[in-house]
Amino acid sequence: QKNDGLNKFPEGPSHPLLGHLPLMTSTTDVIDVSMQLIRNHGKTVKIRIGPKILPMRTSLLTADSHLTEFILSGNKILKKTENYQFLKHWLRKGLLISDGDYWKRHRKILTPAFHLEVLKEFVQVFESVGDVLIEKLRRCEGTPSCDLHPFVTLCTLDVICETAMGTKMNVQSGKNSHYVQSVKKTCRIIIERSMSTLKLTDTTFWLCRDFYTLKNELKVLHDFTHNVINSKKNNKSIDKNTKRLAFLDLLLKFSQDENILSTDEIREEVDTFMFAGHDTTASGICFTLYCLADHPEVQKQALQEQKDLFGDEKNPVITYPDLQNMKYLEQVIKESCRLYPPVPIIGRYTTEDTEFDGCLIPKYTNIMLFIYGLHRDPDYFPEPEKFKPERFDNFDGSLSYTYIPFSAGSRSCIGQKFAMLEMKSIISKIVRHFEIKPTSPRHEVKLSAETVLKSLNGIKVTLKKRP
Ligand code: HEM
Question: Most buried of the four, 93, 130, 136, 178, by CB within 10 Å?
Fold first, then answer.
């Protein structure tokens, strides 16, 4: 393995034998240590695991917009890094982790399922599931501190179950808790595998209890989607009265017409939507509400926008054009996704020697694109720590590789428009019903880079019913 080209990049402090491994032993370290490295040593740094002379792995960590643009805008470096492989037991060859011609073919097949005409029909789902969330949040009214995360996660799970599979799961009302528990346990094990030497490789993972737990949980998850698909195939559970089709119905339809996806392939894609489409939006919603609590003047303006659109009506019937008209709220969400990007790091892997800016990046290099770092760079965003939605007043394309919460280029998030609509629907509802205030003393989030950005100590605010 030739890694000479990487010598151009600084390494920062590291252990001579273990490299950066001792610095990154937890999901919280990943954010802090990566920030320190890029602040103190340059926008792109080398991360080494193992001895300096013969490293086990050398990666690049970058928050440089040029290198980010080079990687994301080209069509050469499309393969994901090996840590995505922890997802393979659940998602198999789903869109998020597949590559090569297989990925290309599936991306082309799945793209029409995210067409605007399809998404517009989902607004009703966001709204009715959001109404249940409002009822659940009433429990928090008057309490000094409410952790939003568990409430919002169940809400986004209900949304994705109904939109991806066409199945009302009512997890917010305590139904189907076995499926929810399996999603939670599987996500936990996936994160822990990337942090534990014993769980890291399949060769030793089977020695751990989690290997068997994962096996059981995956059976629950796979059986569930499998059964939904089968009953749809036998046409037992398609609601004839709705013109709304879930992603699964669309995939089945495409496949019936042209026989392009097998049942297993459909299941893998539906599982992928389930995974990629609920924790991410929950993170986006929770951090936006946290920012609104901290910035009463921004919240006031967001509420005013709601009043301008719907008067004093707290429960208007919201349509797709209404969500489009929530321009200020969109800026608020964008600014929150800048400071707290729901997906803080993504990884790509070079399959051939690649030249960038006169430097050779060798074949088999992991490149970690540090979205969180890009978004907090003062060269790209003056006063980066400040929450200023007006930054997005005149958002122009030149920011496109400095602001990438949904990634960019051909492997960008296929669910981007869906996610923005869902976040607007849920957040606007909460803003109309509650005044969101910081807790006293103010809750300070402890950021953790799991597959999505989370806060280890929850996302706590105070909710006060609006008159
Ligand atoms: C705020 C919410 C969301 C954020 C911030 C987000 C962010 C991202 C990012 C950064 C990627 C690139 C991942 C990588 O390169 O490794 C991605 C990919 C993807 N996202 Fe999202 N996502 C969100 C919501 C959703 C939703 C709701 C869905 C589905 C309904 C979805 C489905 C996917 C899929 C399938 C991919 C893989 C695309 C491909 O490789 O072709 N995402 N997302």
Answer: 130
Residue 284 Cβ inside 6 Å of ligand 1? The answer reads yes
- Cβ of 277 less than 6 Å from ligand 1: yes
Nearest to 416 by CA among 432, 400, 428: 400
Element (H, E) at 101: helix 100-110
Q: Which atom of ligand 1 is nearest to the CA of 341?
A: 5
CB neighbourhood size of 417 (10 A):
15
Which ligand 1 atom is the nearest neighbour of the CA of 160?
A: 30
103-120 tens-digit pLDDT:
999 999 999 999 999 999
User: What is the predicted pLDDT for the residue at 2?
Assistant: 44
Contact 190, 89 (CB under 8 A): no
- CA pair distance 412, 229, nearest whole angstrom: 27
Q: Which has the closest alpha carbon to 349: 76, 108, 106, 70?
A: 76
Which tokens is 188 given? 């936990």
Question: Is the N-terminal amide bond of 467 cis, ω within 30° of 0?
Answer: no
**Which residues lie below 8 Å from residue 170, measured CB to CB, with a gap of 6+?**
132, 158, 176
In 3D space, the residue among 44, 43, 56 whose CA is nearest the CA of residue 15 turns out to be 56
Closest CA relative to residue 189, chosen from 153, 226, 218, 160: 218
Residue whose CA is closest, atom 21 of ligand 1? 413
The torsion defined by the Cα of 86, 91, 97 and 98, in degrees rounded to 10, comes to: 130
CA of 16 from ligand 1 middle (Å) equals: 37
User: How much helix, strand and coil, in percent to the nearest 5, is found in the chain?
Assistant: 55, 10, 35
* Side chain identity at residue 186, one-letter code: T
pTM > 0.90: yes or no: yes
ipTM for the assembly:
0.99
Cβ-based neighbour number of residue 358 at 10 Å: 7
Cα separation of 436 and 69, whole Å?
A: 37
Taking the CA of residue 354 as centre, how many other CA atoms within 13 Å lie in the half-sphere pointing to its CB? 20
Asked whether 97 lines ligand 1 (CB < 6 A), one says: no
